[in-house]
Amino acid sequence: MWFPGMKVVRFLLVLLALVGAWWLFAPETLGGSDTYVVVSGPSMWPKLVTGDLVILRRTGSYHTGQIAAYKTPQLEAPILHQIISVSDNHFSFKGINNGFVDPSSPVQSELVGRMWLDLGRTGRLLRFTQLPAVGGGLVFAASAYAWWPRRRGRHHRLGRKTTCA
Length: 165
Description:
The chain is of the alpha+beta class. The chain is 29% helix and 25% strand. It is built from 4 helices and 6 strands; from the N terminus they run αββββββααα.
């Protein structure tokens, strides 16, 4: 069924879907509430492996057993490990596959967030697109597509004369 306002309805539905996706998944760097981390190293195996993309969310409280990330002054990337204990607002962390407890004992203000969603090996794809040659190629391809001349649509062909037998 087609009616004149269908394009407007479709546009509003797409806009609503985009706003909903932004509200759910926007990274903190762009005004959202999520932090994205690509797992690196074997410390969280078998739960998480290198190349997994994890979405972190801040929360009001953190508990033993949760997987969360924290920042340290020594490293620029957050450390994603499991909380093994909480004492006097200090958290102890350990990688599931590590035989030792992390030397840092961050406080809640140093926590980046807890694991909200694991998107699997999507992080490998994300890292791949960050390579200059790949990212540049994707930008070039998108630009070429945007500027490529298009054929006229069927609405422009309606003016042609046709013969009927």
